[in-house]
Amino acid sequence: MAEINSNVDTTLLDLATKAYALASILQTLHVALPEDKAGCEVPTRTLVSHVMGMAEQLADSLADKDFAMKSATRLQQAA
Predict the structure, then answer these.
(1) In CA terms, which of 13, 51, 54, 68 is 20 to 30 Å from 79?
(2) If phi over 0 gives left and psi between -120 and 50 gives alpha, with beta otherwise, what is residue 39?
(3) C-beta of residue 66 within 8 angstroms of C-beta of residue 12
(4) CA distance 35 to 33
(5) Is 37 in a helix, a strand, or coil?
(6) What is the pLDDT of residues 15-36, one digit of tens each?
């Protein structure tokens, strides 16, 4: 059972790392894009900013879940 949890933890941490990398790439794109013009049909910079925020939240959630699962496993092992 611990082996299964260990694999899940690694997967969550890997996913969190990928989500942080994605957020970083989106941040670079956001900085490189010009400000959206008023009334533009596709506010690209705003969309990139929104998706960047979503990627950051996803990464934080995955990292928090990874930490919580590892903490719970340590508590179980200590008991």
Answers:
(1) 13
(2) left
(3) yes
(4) 7
(5) coil
(6) 999 999 999 999 999 999 999 9
pTM recorded for the entire structure: 0.78
Name, in order, each residue with C-beta under 8 angstroms of 11's C-beta and a sequence gap of 6 or more: none
- Name the one residue in this structure whose structure tokens are 């998706």: 51
Give the pair of three-digit tokens for residue 5: 């949890």
78 vs 32, 70, 71, 72, 74, CA distance in Å?
Answer: 50, 12, 11, 10, 6
DSSP letters for 54-76: HHHHHHHHHHHHHHHHHHHHHHH
